[in-house]
Amino acid sequence: xxAPKKYKTKIKDGQGVGEGIDYKPWYEATEYVPKTGIYTSPxxxxxxxxxxxxxxxxxxxRIHHLLSSYEIFLFTxxxxxxxxxxxxxxxxxxKLDEVSDIFKYFNIKQIQSDEPHVLTTDFLxxxxxxxxxxxxxxxxxxxxxxxxxxxxxxxxxxxRNGVEWKLCTEKELPQSKTYLKNINELHNNLKTFKDExxxxxxxxxxxxxxxxxxxxLKNHSLLEVAQIIDEDLSIxxxxxxxxxxxxxxxxxxxxxxxxxxxxxxxHISQIKILKNGALSxxxxxx
Length: 286
Fold this sequence. Notes:
By secondary structure, the protein is α+β, with helices and mostly antiparallel strands.
């Protein structure tokens, strides 16, 4: 893991500024993250929360730098949400004078060092209505008195800047391993789908088949229906499965993600079609 970068170097490199594909996070996955008083070493942090990861986004097609397994999961959920149009991770609170003022306002001790200590928010997300939401994750076992003081500063900072702030813990995340596996599979499949040459004509044909024929095939599993569609449309084996996952990821098909939805026990009748009318290219666009 690389040595910590100096504040001035980060500013010069444009870290913590920009939007969309041009945004550069304050901390990168290959970089040492300074101690916060919660972890005694990077090794302890990784043991508790999982290793740092670089993951390419779908909403914004750039590499995102995620510093724990929890962040990876939250990012995946955000990236699949059609109402979110931008995701900026490791977002720094760069109005340093304002941060210092908040520490003084709450009479909270501020870390003193030769380098400016920059607080960061795990995610700053922007919604379609142009509103923003700041989200920070922390396991409940690390919610010490000092950590809650820092969160008080962070929350006040965002409130002063007109942004809602939310603290998320593991208690608010799905506990089902199947759900976690399904979400990750949907996300990976959607990224792969973008690189494959499956035409909109084919996607629409599969969607229309399910929409029109699901009642006649209600006792068949999803896998069986996918095989039937592949044969009926004379398309490559597995194409319908890929498209099913895309339509679920895009919220056009709804299925209980707490189940292994491609097991023989899951029938086509369990799919709920949320889309009214014909499918359009924008429905499946990234």
